[in-house]
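Dear colleagues,

As part of the handover before I leave the project, I'm documenting each prediction I ran so the next person doesn't have to rerun anything. This entry is a single chain, and its sequence is reproduced below.
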Amino acid sequence: MPRRSMRFLATPCLVAALFTPVSLNAQAPTTAQSSRRPNVIIILADDMGFSDIGCYGGEIHTPALDQLAREGVRFTQFYNMARCCPTRASILTGLYPHQTGLGHMNQNHGRPGYEGELNDHCVTIAEALRQSGYRTGMVGKWHLCRLNIARAPGEQQKAMLAFENDTPISPSTDNWPTHRGFEEFWGTIPGVDSFYDPYGLVHNDEPIRPDRADFYYTDFITDHTIEMIDRYARDENPFFLYVAYTAPHWPMQARDEDIKRYSDTYKVGWDAIREERFSRLIELGMVKKEWGLSPRASAKSLNDGASAVGPWEDAKAKDWQAQRMAVYAGMIECMDRGVGRIAATLRKAGIDDNTLIVFLSDNGACQENVRPEWYDIPDRTRDGRKIHVGNRPEHAPGPETVYQSYGPAWANASNTPFRRFKHFTEEGGISAPCIVRWPAGRLEPGRIEKKHVGNVLDLMPTILAAAGAIYPKDYQGRPIPPAEGRNLLPVLRGTPSFDRGALCWEHEGNRAVRIGDWKLVAPHREPWRLYHMTEDRTELHDVAKDHLEKVAELKAAYEAWANRCGVQPWPIRQ
C-alpha cells in the first residue's frame, strides 16, 4: 500500500539530565543573552483536572511542578475556555475563540468565527514577540487548523491514520505554527494521536516519523524543548517557547514503569480519592470547607450517553478501573519529569531567574468514553496490529494497541471539588491549575493568589508587558481587535489590581458569564443558574430566584458579549 512520504527524525538523547542534579547555588554559566527582557515559556497540559498535581492537592508525584509552585505564584481562580481548540486560540491571541475563527473546534462551519482555524484578524504571541526581537519556537500539539481526516469517509479515513495513503494531514499548511510566528516547530498538528507512533508528527511543514523503538511523545516534546533552550540561550536575544504537551489526554498510554508506581494507589476508588483531595485543598487554603464537595456526576450532567457515576463500592472490574487512573497518573508524572528537565536546563544555562514560566491546563478533566466510530480513532497500528478501542475491562490501558479514556468517574475525581467536566462551563470544565514562576520579576515565592481571577485571555497582555513588547493595532496590513485580556503582572506581584469586568464563555451552547463574585451559567438548552463564587464555588446552590436583578445584569452582559464576538446559536447552521 502507498504510504505518506516522511523523513526520519533524530531525537536528542538527553536521558542523562534526569540523573544529574543541578545546584541552585552553583556558579551560573556565562550565556550570550545580554538583554534584561525575560525569556518566556508557556507549558500547557492537555485535559488535566484542577486537583491532579501535588501542589493542587493531588496524590500524583509531581516534584517539578511542586517546586515551580514553591518558587512562584499559584492561582486558585484561573480559567480556560472549556476545550482544547478554543483555549489554545485564546492563549496565543488574547482574544475570545470566536474572534479568532475557533468558536467551535477545527471543523469549518461556514460562518464567521467558526471557520475551524486561526483567521487573519488576530495576531499570535509569537508574531508579536518576533516583531520585538524574540526568538520563537514551539513543541507539541497545535490543533488550530482544519484536518483532512475530519472529512475523510470510512476506510479511507482509517487508512490515513495508519499511514497507508498519501493524504496530507491538512488541506493547507498556511495555518501551521511556522506560518503563525514560530521560527521552528516539532510536534503534532491534530488534536489527538498515539503516544507511541503519532501519525500527525511534523517538523515545521514536513511530516516525520519516529526512528526509535522506545519513542514516547511526551519525552519527544521535552527533548526538543531542551534542544531549543540550549540553542536559544546562546543567542543575545531572548526567546519565547510554547510547550504543548498532550499528556494526559486519551488514549491512556504510558510506559510500564510509570504505571507500576501507581499500581495500588487507586484501588481505594474514586470516592476516597475525591475526599482525600478535598481535604488537602482545604489544608492548602485553596478551597473552603463550607463550599462542600460536589456530588458524583449524574447521567444528565454527563450529556454524552455515558452512564451515571456510582459509588466505588458498586463498581465492576475494580482492578481495571484502578489501572485506568494509574495510567493517567503515570502520564502526568512523565510530563512532570519533563518539566523538571526543562527547569534543570534553564539553571544550567544560567537563565532560570529571568525566564517567565507559565504552567496550566487547557480545560477540565475529560469525561469522554472513547468510541471506535470517532473520526480521529485509528483501528490498527502502522505495522498492522489491531487497536482495541473502547473502555472495556478485557483490554488493559497503557500499550500502543489500546485506545481508552479513564471515564467520567475518574474525571470527577480529577476535577475535585468542582462540578462537570471539559466541554461544559461549570467550574469543573473551565478551572485550571495555573503556576507562574519568574524570580527576576519580583514575584513572592510560594504565594497562593486566592482573590483575583485570571483567564487564558490574560497571557498575551501579561507576557507582552513583561517583554516590553507592544500589542499591534494592525499586522501585515490587517487591523487587529484589541486584546480582551488584562495584564496580570500587578496581581502576580501582589499589588492592587483592576476591576476586570465581565468574563464570558460559550462552547456548543454551554455558556457562562462571571462579573466579580457572581457567575451565571447554563448548559446547552437549560435555564440560567446563578452562583456566588465566594460562598459557593462548587455551584451547589442556585440563587437565581433570589437575585433576579443580578441575573438580568449578567444575562445582559453575556448577550452584549455574544453579539460583539459573533457567537452563534448551537448547533451551527451553514
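The chain has 15 helices and 21 strands. Confidence is low (pLDDT under 50) at residues 1-30.

All the best with the project,
I.
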